[in-house]
Amino acid sequence: MTAKVTVTATAIRVETPLRRIVSDFCGNPVAVVGLVLLGVILLLALFAPWLSPQNPYDLAQLDVMDSRLAPGSKSPSGGTFWLGTDDQGRDMLSAILYGLRISLGVGIAATVLALVIGLATGLPAAYLGGRTETLVMRIVDIQLSFPAILIALILIAVLGQGTGKVIAALVTVQWAYYARTVRGAALVERRKEYIEAAHCLALAPARIVFRHLLPNCLPPMIVVATVQVAAAITLEATLSFLGLGLPITEPSLGLLIANGYQYLLSGKYWISFFPGIALLLTIVSINLVADQLRDVLNPRLQR
Amino acid sequence: MSETAPAPRAPLVELRGISKRFVKGLDTAARIGNLFGAGVAEEVVHAVDRVDLAVSAGEVVGLVGESGCGKSTLGRLAVGLLAPTEGGRYWNGAPLAGLAPAAARLQQLKMQMIFQDPYASLNPRMRVEDIVGEAPVVHGIVPRAQQHEYVREQLNRVGLDPALMRRFPHQFSGGQRARIGIARALAVRPEFLVCDESVAALDVSIQAQVLNLFIDLREALNLTYLFISHDLGVVRHVSDRVVIMYLGRVVESGPTDDIFAAPRHPYTRALLAEAGTVEPIKRTFIPISGEIPSPLDPPPGCHFHPRCGQAMPRCRESAPALTEIAPGRLSACFLDGAHA
Amino acid sequence: MLVFIIRRSLQSVVVLFAMSLLVFVGVYAIGNPIDILINPQADQIDRERAIAALGLDKPLWSQYLTFLTGALSGNLGRSFVHSTPALGLILERMPATMELALTAMLFAIVLGIPLGLWAGLKPNGIAGRMIMTGSILGFSLPTFWVGLMLIMVFSVELGWLPSNGRGPTVLLFGLVPVSFLSVEGWRHLLMPATNLALFNVALLIRLTRSGAHEALLQDYVKFARAKGLTNARIIGVHVLRNILIPVVTVIGLQFGALIAFAIVTESVFAWPGMGKLLIDSIGVLDRPVIVAYLLVIVTIFIVINLIVDVLYSALDPRVRLTELKG
Amino acid sequence: MSVPLLAVDGLCTHFFTKAGVVKAVDGVSFTVARGEVLGLVGESGSGKSMTGYSIMGLVDPPGRIVSGVVELNGRDLSALSAEDMRQLRGNRIAMIFQDPMMTLNPVLRIDVQMVETIRAHQRVGRAAALERSRAALVQVGIPSPDERLQAYPHQFSGGMRQRVAIAIALLNNPDLIIADEPTTALDVTIQGQILFEMQKLTRETGAAMIWITHDLSVVAGLADRVCVMYAGRIVEEGTTFDVLTHPWHPYTQGLLDSVPARGARGTRLSQIPGMTPSVQDLPPGCAFRERCGYATDECTVNPAMRDRGVDGRGVRCFHPLRAGTAA
Lengths: 303, 340, 326, 327
Known about the structure:
The structure holds four protein chains of four kinds.
Chain A: H1 17-25, H2 29-46, H3 48-51, E1 73-74, E2 80-81, H4 92-128, H5 130-144, H6 148-159, H7 163-190, H8 193-200, H9 205-241, H10 253-264, H11 270-296
Antiparallel strand pairs in A: 1-2
Helix pairs in contact in A: 2-4, 2-11, 4-5, 4-7, 4-9, 4-11, 5-7, 6-7, 7-9, 8-9, 9-10, 9-11, 10-11
Chain B: E1 13-24, H1 28-35, E2 43-55, E3 60-64, H2 71-79, E4 86-91, E5 94-95, H3 101-109, E6 111-114, H4 128-138, H5 147-157, H6 174-186, E7 192-196, H7 204-221, E8 224-229, H8 232-238, E9 241-246, E10 249-255, H9 256-261, H10 266-274, H11 313-317, E11 323-326, E12 329-331
Parallel strand pairs in B: 3-8, 3-9, 6-7, 7-8
Antiparallel strand pairs in B: 1-2, 1-4, 4-5, 9-10, 10-12, 11-12
Helix pairs in contact in B: 4-5, 4-6, 5-6
Chain D: E1 6-17, E2 20-32, E3 37-41, H1 48-56, E4 63-72, E5 75-76, H2 82-88, E6 93-96, H3 100-103, H4 110-119, H5 126-139, H6 145-149, H7 158-170, E7 176-180, H8 188-205, E8 208-213, H9 216-222, E9 225-230, E10 233-239, H10 240-245, H11 250-258, E11 314-315
Parallel strand pairs in D: 3-8, 3-9, 6-7, 7-8
Antiparallel strand pairs in D: 1-2, 1-4, 4-5, 9-10, 10-11
């Protein structure tokens, strides 16, 4: 061959997209703090049964004599209630760790389900176009024009309470965000020349969708999913607070806060305050991570 | 209608009377509105309007025109990325419509496209090795075990260091990306390449390198090109024959040297007059008047008549057909003898 | 313009129809409509009579028609608890919710847009960074919990503001009772409105900031600077006019969300609005009120969406022209 | 010789990024005489646009003018206050940008965008400003100007928008217009129209012009003098005729050879090997030496501009291709 303008390697390190995202992410110290905090919270929730001083739902370990003790009180059995106790004599710290577990579990389960449903509807809608797209997007538009809490309330009012039903309500509320996001991303990507090139190379449609289209639509989905986990947790807590969420047997953070509502006016702040702080830290850490991910994964800042 | 002088064999690629219309239909609201006299019409773009185009084996045909003239659409029709609204495609004289899926796939590999945007034309989440090697492996051109070796050959051929094949597209410059795109197309051993503004986004010095690569590859691999560009200098340099389009129609075609020496159609003449040279003659720019009309609402008759200095009443009424005015030369203008 | 109006009206009709169908399916078909629609305290004879009167022995489609004609004529059933027409009950509570939502929106606009503009124009300054971190906090704070904390601090600890109710109301134009015309009313309104506004302050900060940030990178801003315009004019006219389009749209849409989210705030502060009524009704299974609330709020949403669309096309000449033509 | 209209001396504009200092403009010097058209030619990343922004005082952070002097009519612009500099922009120096679709504010009517330009610099009434705007539209060949003043930018085609931008640049009768690739985004025939208008307007108004472009053919027909930029530095300057017919710098020569020209159809073009360097981590010395066939050890030192004598001809090279040595 004659065209020999061989360009030699100037740098040895192969910069993968993932590595670049990680290093970009670490550029913002606040976001790193958020990530670390989130990691700690996840670990606390995961290992709650081993970390809690007491199993708050083992009635044998509770003593009504201990009810509504202020933070730092000594327990008759020798321990200290660092965050006080609730009206049934439950150690708040243990209750919060267990509550965190339930809140995070419900939020993540709902997000994963909604993500899958959103992908399964939005991606074909964008790729196929035509009537499929019109139908899916009409439903999405109508749903997104109503606030999440309203739809969730209607569903709960109709379906009744229960963990499964709350998750179903959260999924129903959220799938539309994913469908809209993935469709938007896919419409942009689909017009790009690398997709045309894949068609030109006679690759099978399934291969084009899953190997070429989907990986390039994922970054915005990740951002939306992170934000939506936080939204799902907040929504579940709100529903539970209103007495329309999880049953008493599954006391999430929202339920704990609601539980302390009546004691608040008599100055026993800790029953509502500390679960609220736990909820706040969880959501703030997720949102900090999401905020930085949005910048890092922004295609306009990439090249 | 044949474009070249009587040829012993059929051209490699031929488009006959091919058209592409993009229609933006009316929704229910617009239709109801029309009942009340809103007068909303369907938007129809005649991107390509009954074009005949033949490219013989080994030939380089340059396709020239300004934005919105349909040259890119015609390229995509030729390579099969778009389905024509009417008209047909032929390969060595045999129709391409109605091939069985397996045969259609094999046929598709024989025609490839080199794209314009060195950024958007490579999948940013794939390594060069996979970008170039995916299709040959999928289609069984090389076994998976030999992908690495095969990609190495392909990269060498386009002048890229194979040591870089584990990298991602963002780690390359524009010129290198263009080479990766060329390697990707060549990896499936095509015979016919459509180059759609393939050097337009590159710096002048890099553009020369890539043009040289095209010239070298043509000789080495006996390739046939449809070379689409708005840059007359580039087209003139690489093409054997030139086809000039204006608003979806071919207005003139013929051997490159003839067209550049003696353009016949008024639009071609205007285009050539505007084409820059690096000769430092301080010149007075004499523009052709008017704007390029919207392809949504092209003027009647000859599309060029509102901007043409020699327009006659009949130019407004009917469109002149593309007729042979000299061996191998066609023009669509009433001023040419054949119409008189 | 005609087609624009037709398109919007068609969409509204479709949404209303879909929602009525959903509400019908939810309330009449999934649950047992006899339990839902007839007061559980009624005796057997009353039940029989009610079933016949409500047409619950007829096929589903005919029941739906009955429901639909009833809804269209404003008859959405009677509340079991209050024994008055459900629709009247909702409308009676509406001014309280509207006042709360409007005040909250006002707070959000007055705080959110200037702060967001500041953060967008000086993204690397200390104030800008603090505003953005604060907005993440505002985004993350669960509304109901903030409400509790406000009560704890300002009512329980400091005793400055009342923790519940609407306080004395004054009739505006002689027919709408409002709180904001008296000092005592403001004391009641302040905390709930702040609570409800919090999320939207954060949202408007972020929206305005990203809009301003985006606009500053545009060529037209660079061209405006090259023309020698003053900074005040560039920001006040060129940047603001462009970010006003998304901001106004979101303010409109968020107003609907505020009405919905008022459910939570009204519950916390015992604010006597539609949301509190809804929660109370769900608690005692007063289904006609629930249905009435849903249909009323859907109508409000459709009206809001329509207003937003018109505003949007008034602000953006690009939309205006294509829509007017098309 | 009298004071030139614009004198740029040793201009350095650097960008302070996380990855290091990017020397976008690195010691650029040139002058523009009254009524002269100077072509500033270079490939992407050569710093030609940033030179224009630096003169206008429109460099955004993290960029900063590090050193150098820009004098307009003998007045040092770096000594001016922000307000004085604003008074100068759009008044004595105007600038036109590349993408006509993006330079006009989409939500403001044309009359608003024109009138504000006049009133930012002159105390005139709205009616007078409107009349001046109308005249400027006529001047750049826009038909039915009264109607067009009432329109929004999206109602114009690309070529028409660029004409409006030119009209805005002309509103305050500037001494100097900096045109940053204003025809690159346009079609050939429309480009011809714009070039025609610009040529006519500079002749009529006597304004000087810096025409920034990557396209040698535009410069060839339009400019009186040319500066060729490479990696943030001017490597060659002179009259258009001299530079294009007898280039001294190997880069200019390579650039000219890269342009497909008459004849030799289907043959290889003579090309410059290698890639355009990134100005981020430029090695010391002549930035072109790794692509240059004439490079020697001497070239590891940055050459100074030489022979800035007759006709302002100069070259920044140790091995200039003087007559006879040109390949």
